[in-house]
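Holo prediction — BTX.
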Amino acid sequence: LKYSVAKLLKDAAPRYVSGGDIARRFNVTRAAVWKCIEELREEGYIIEASTRKGYRLVSMQDCLNAFEIQNGLNTSVVGRSVVFLNSIDSTNSYAKRLALEGAENGTVVVAAEQTMGRGRLGRSWESPAGKGIYMSVLLKPDVEPYETPVLTLAAAVAVSDAIKEATGLDTGIKWPNDLVIDGKKVCGILFEMMSEADRVSNVILGIGINYSQEPEDFPAELKDRAISLKTASEKGAVPPCTTPGSMPEFSRLSVIRAVLKQLDIVVRMVINGRTDEVLAMWKDKSVTLGREVSFTLKGVQYSGVATDITGDGKLLVECSDGVRRELLSGEVSVRGIYGYA
Ligand code: BTX
């Protein structure tokens, strides 16, 4: 009932709908309608009530729930089932637990807060309540393990496209799949998989996007390395439809829905063998290729210039010792990004 009422108010907005009309429509009491309105308000719907005119939906800016994430999404796989949690240790860990219980391909877990958000290589991901987007997508892509690096690059392309669609902001991709604005990290992607001998059974794509943190919300060591969509949009890269300086009308909800739609597209491309196109999209957004990079391999530090991505998703580096090396994973510092001067 609650979300039927929400939908009714959404369709009617900015007009009022009387409590009596809603009650009759769903064959419930006016008190039941009032209870729904209260619950919706708690979920972030801003609803005005007027004794004469009834109820009116004013804004959904902070609203987040499984119904709104999924409603009318029209994707083929991604978002078939959506779980929303107010708080969780890590959406990736939760999605892994769901996978073990047999959750379906395309299941999405979204949380408003993570208490133990995880990064790559055992690092942590700052996940304050309400200020970021924390989501994991469970996929059963039926690909072989060697094909998965391209899937992670594809995820970065999808999220970058989604951010563009929902906010108008341009992001660059730092290899393999950090999204960067002004040399600062706005999104990180954690790719985890469970595989059997030669088949990948479950892939979990964890996506963390900084949404509304102010610079001072980040821990001191991240201040110069992290940025939120809100800060980026205020700094001038404002979507064309909004007045400069004002907070554009983009919400966590619109970003999440755009991510699911774009992921659905690129995952299908990878499964259908269109990896060349995906890699071309990645290269187009890259802030790594053509730049000086440094990295550590088996305890030895190397530097050189990143020149290309191989067909199976490895980074090619022409090292200063004259050797060309291929990197499959790990950490690469790129000059000009995250304070690497
Ligand atoms: P990463 O290992 O590339 O990045 C982690 C590093 O980034 C940290 O060591 C820290 O320096 C920095 N960092 C931590 N938090 C933030 C932040 N909010 N913004 C910018 N920089 C930060 C990237 O790992 C992968 C992150 C994936 C996060 C998602 S959230 C949903 C899902 N669930 C989960 O537990 N992880 C993923």
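READOUT: Residues 90-92, 114, 117-121, 123, 125-126, 134-136, 178, 185, 188-190, 206-208, 210, 222, 225-226 surround BTX (CB under 6 Å).
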